[in-house]
Amino acid sequence: MTLNSFDNRTISAFTSKLSPAADICVGLTIFSVVVLSVLGNGLVLVICYRRRRKMVGSELLCVNLAVVDFLSCICFYPLSIMSSFHHMWLGENITCVYYGLGCYTFGLCAMFTIAAISIIRYLKTCYSLVYAVWLEGANIQLVCCVIWLVATVWSSFPLFGWGEYVPEPYGLSCTIAWRGYHTSAKDAFYVICSFACFTMVPVLLIVVSQCRILYKLSRFSKSLSARGIRNNLKHTERRLSVMFSCISLGFVIAWAPYAVVSFLFIFHKENQYMAPGGFVFPALFAKSSHIYNPFIYFYFNKTFRRELRCLLLPLWPTLGGNRVSVHTATGHQHPIHIQLQERACVQKRPFGLSRDPTLSKSKGKAVHSSGNPVPGRLVYTCWGSPSKKSSHHLGQ
After folding, report:
1. How far is CA 147 from CA 142, 152, 240, in A?
2. Backbone φ and ψ of 192, nearest 5°
3. Using CA atoms, how far apart are residues 365 and 372, in angstroms rounded to an integer?
């Protein structure tokens, strides 16, 4: 149906079916999701912009996912929050199409992006030659463009009569008319394709790819252990695999209840086969998928933690901490100079570059000199085992 089809819809379809207290709880829950998502994904985008020249091609997909989550909470969810506090959907048909079209487009983008991450990660792990030839540099940018193009085109079909955007059963959100399966052949085709091709297929690709990756890494680690070979990349590769597995499977788990409820709604002609509250909890749980990705990045990725510390250091200098350096003097007294230095945000030196010889010489002098500690620094001298000479020196 087109936009004109909304003229025949009664106002009751846009009225909340929940109690006023439940409406306020829904609005507060969505508001908390918006705040956490904007802060988390905003930090991810700022950090990615700071290190944009060091990013590899595959990291663009993580940036694309952060953009999707950030814009969803900025552009669409405030409308649902205001509607919750007014106990009805604001704007009726126009805003319903706007909300449904935008949320479905960005939802498809998120699902396709995670599916692309899983597939590319699988190819990099199991078929590194294919990854090196086809999925480096500009090809990842092409993948991002294709994701947005496919999601936008498919979600625009209801504007031209294939499918429809209608209010959710509880009245405070809008989505695809899953019951359009019983309306016409075109609507039935759109609903079935939306669920099968654009929901189940990406989910199966995500699950199968992640399972294959974990299985491949497990076999590789066991083979190296059986041969007695030390695997230096084992820990790093495992952390990356666990990070992407958490992102992928977390998205699937968050959207699974909503997908099940929508699937059941397709084949029921009755308007009320489930209480309105039965639709609220899956919808709110699905929105939580915008929150946890930044926490996964910061927990598993040391680069993100270091960049976040550098970003917040001007605001909270105590985040820098103190660095303790110990200088041992030669001689019979064995004094130990403990030097406290304020930790600053220092960029890591490129791998393979030799250190500055002047720095190494000055550092050597600081280590071997017992009477002249490093100038300009606060130095505390701790003495070793007590002796007559050391006590005499202390008396001086």
Report:
1. 9, 9, 23
2. -65, -45
3. 9
pLDDT digits (tens, 9 = 90+) for 130-183: 666 666 666 888 899 999 999 999 999 999 989 899 998 888 899 998 877 777
Residue 190: partners with Cβ closer than 8 Å, 6 or more residues away: 157, 158, 162, 163, 176, 180
Rounded CA separation 53/62 (Å): 15
Q: What is the mean pLDDT of residues 364-391?
A: 42
The C-alpha atoms of residue 294 and residue 287 are separated, in whole angstroms, by: 15
Residue 179 has what pLDDT? Answer: 79
Q: Which of 74, 77, 69 is nearest to 95 (CA)?
A: 77
Give the Cα separation of 108 and 147 in Å (integer).
8
Report DSSP letters for 159-200, one per residue: GGTSS-EEE-TTSS-EEE-GGGGGT-HHHHHHHHHHHIIIII
Q: Report residue 390's pLDDT band, with 50, 70 and 90 as the boundaries.
A: very low
Q: Determine contact, residues 252/206, Cβ cutoff 8 Å.
A: yes
CB 138 within 8 A of CB 131: no
State how far the Cα of 343 lies from the Cα of 324, in Å rounded to an integer.
9
- Residue 340 β-bridge partners: 324
Rg of the Cα trace of the chain? 29
Q: pTM surpassing 0.90?
A: no
Residue 386 has pLDDT above 60, yes or no: no
pLDDT in tens, 303-359: 888 888 888 887 776 655 554 444 444 545 455 444 444 444 544 444 444 444 444
Count of alpha carbons within 13 angstroms of residue 365, beta-carbon side: 9
Q: Is the dihedral of CA 265, 267, 272, 275 positive or negative?
A: negative
Task: Look at phi and psi of residue 361 and say left if phi exceeds 0, alpha if psi is from -120 to 50, else beta.
Answer: alpha
Token pair for 191? 């609903």
